[in-house]
Amino acid sequence: MIRTRTDGDVRVVTLDRSEARNAIRPEDLTALSEVFERSETDGSPPVTYLHGAGDAFCAGADLDAVAALDDPAAFARRGQRVATAVEESPTVVVCGVDGAARGGGVELALAADVRVATPRATFAEPGVSLGLFGAWGGTGRLPRVMREGDALDFALSGRVLDAEAALRTGLVSRVVDDPRTVADEIAGGASDALAAIKRRIRDRRDVEAQERAEAEAFARLHDAHADEIARRRGE
């Protein structure tokens, strides 16, 4: 499901499960972790471009996998590990969202350094309709990216934001026809300057305690709403 290639000064990471709108399974989390953690040592280009194949960016966690979880807190922690690896990657990560970003897809985008949407992009955190919420670090990152009031409205309502609404609220920084062009633009900068800028802007207090509480809350809700998750899986 995860494809990588190098194109000049940009490493391209593609979520490639288009038949399922690039929904993420546990094994895909493992593959994504390996891709971004390996960038610490594999001499990756200075910019990584993360995007989805087909007509969606990412539909979030695969509901078949969510319904079958024996240890939902561990699943949340795996997703957090991926998002942290994206955020802490020594490369600048540009996320291009074309089509739908839902749930875990939004959380992957939140972990990127730069989020760029096409006019077709839409964003939502629909977990609340299942009695869940985004637990891959999203509750910590969302109010840092959007204003707190907008973040609460977005997460609590489960409503869909189009590209222009995402731009107004700060969820994305640009709306363009081809997000890859933004990755290429950034890659034109000096690689050491790009890395230094990212390190300084990303420097913040430890979020380990917040993420631990997030995973525990997700596990409690998963157990409480298991029947509804199973029902919705079949829709």
From TrEMBL:
Domain of life, per lineage: Archaea
Signal sequence range: none
A Pfam family the protein falls into: ECH_1
Family to which this protein belongs: Belongs to the enoyl-CoA hydratase/isomerase family.
PANTHER family, alphabetized: ENOYL-COA HYDRATASE, IP11341P-RELATED
Protein name: Enoyl-CoA hydratase/carnithine racemase
Organism of derivation: Halorubrum sodomense
